[in-house]
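Repro case for the chain-ordering regression, as requested:
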Amino acid sequence: MNGRIIGTLVASDFRNFIRDKFVSIMMAAGMALFIAIYFLMPGKVEETIKIGLYLPQIPHLTGMLPREEGVEFYQAQSEEDLKREIMERRILFGISAPGDGGTSLQSGQRPRIFVYYPSDVPDEIKEMGTILVGEMINEAGGYRSGIEAAEIVLGPDMGGKQIPHRNRMLPLLVFVFLISETIGLANLITEEWRGGTVRALLTTPMTGVDFFAAKGITGLWMSLSQIFLLLILTGSLGRNALLIAVTLLLGALMINGAAFVIASASRDMMSVIGWGTLFMMLLAVPAITVMIPGPVAGWIKVIPSYYLVDILHRAINFGISWEGNLRGLLYLGGLDLAFNFLGIVALKRKLYES
Amino acid sequence: MPNEAIRVDRIEYSYGDIRAVQGISFAVGEGEIFGFLGPNGAGKSTTIKMLTGQLNPQGGKIEVLGMDIARNREKVQALIGICFERTNLYERMSAIENLNLFARLHGVKDFDVTEILVRVGLEQRGRDRVFGLSKGMKQRLMVARALVNRPSVLFLDEPTEGLDPASADNIRNVIRQERDRGATVFLTTHDMLEADKLSDRVAFINDGEIVALDTPDNLKQKFGKRAIRAQVRGEEGKMEEREIEMDRAGTATEVRALFDRDRVITIHSEEASLEDIFIKITGRGLSA
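-- result from build under test --
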């Protein structure tokens, strides 16, 4: 390996990359857009549930409602006021007992209480409203259950410190940067192949190892410089900075290998975009599951980007350090070797046999 | 022959079932311009790729500057210059940046980019990006790039193909200057006039085999016929063509008779061209 040759080629790649107006404009615009999206997303999670009440005939029922942390009640002036607050999304749902609700209750008749929901309310909220009204009625009727429920949180209690949407989106943004630079690197190599410059390079004292090392460094520079800028601007590098840096380096190496594979299968920019999109669709799945949490199937661990996203999410959003991520880092290292081996073999075959 | 700069010993290469090069052997001396002629698909480009380390021969051996290229590829490539058939420059970089890049890759420290641009007549366009240059300028820049490391052996693959006369002439001058400097020039072309003008020796390759190898003069002598061609106005005033073969016992008498009998309008001596010889040997033309 020759440092002078590698440095010369990296500098030349840098120059060519910057002078490709399409790529550099897309890169700058992408950066600005992603940072804007991040800051436009809510910075904190609204954890207080607001419930509206309109109980003119039975005001004492208000005092019987369970007082929980994170639950606030809004006393509506009229039923119309209650409905308006719901429609304008200022309260989650509303409970109304108009007319003679109080008289009915006192006389032992079945009172009529209405629970108003917005049209897009999830089933869980509807269920919550029904339980709350049931509890109110039980309290009012003097029925008390002999069973007491206690809440026990397993793992870090995120109550009151939920991960904001923007932070959930960070692994996806990082991933989009990585994959877009994969396309950039694959396109750079494909252009060299199409333009024949790779033949000119490989007939100088440059070896194949020098060529791949230079392209690898160019790829790492392209992806990591932007990602670190994003993390610094969003203040996400504070905790576990070294772990995040190592993870990103390993992730970028894996993605470099993917770029070699894409370049080996591509003939022009369109085919690079085609193969790149296919890779992106598959590799983005773990990042999407972080953004939209829910039960994740075990097969997701088969997707090579899972470990990259998982370590970043745990390190940035949960503050989990080296100890909790060692296994993931080892997997990621193994994937680096596999992707780069595959990419170099495929690309070498193409470059030397064409 | 002076010391050998290139020695090729029974090299072979096949693309699947197609045998592109079939056990050819030849040697090129130091300071010699060696023309390698053949039609498209004859095996010229495959041979030049093997000689420059871009392809490994599937059989046989190649020595360049005394080194086996299969074992010393990078060492050999540091001492040779290659001008490819197809333009392969960095289009977004300027002419100067392209030349500096390859000088650095070769590790040339005292590289004078202006001097090399002057030699190929591009001193006024050095700062222009390559995509703005004409085809002839790009080709001259390709030749300049092949010279950045002052190569001991210069491989030129169809260097003047499709160029305007001025650009082609500039490249021919550079080739002669390189030979005068002591470099060996391996020139592949299917332009027989160019090969005739420049080459000390030429080899004809056809269907992957060398079918003739000698100096252009020797080949003409061996395979060609010398003749005198005249345009005359005959007895009835009609223009006619006469051809008298030279180097025969009765040639002088026939020439005298021509002047006595007819009114000679034009008269030329005629030599066989390399293309005539190639056709005679292979039955096909060089441009085929």
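Ordering looks correct now. Chain A touches chain B through 22 residues (CB under 8 Å).
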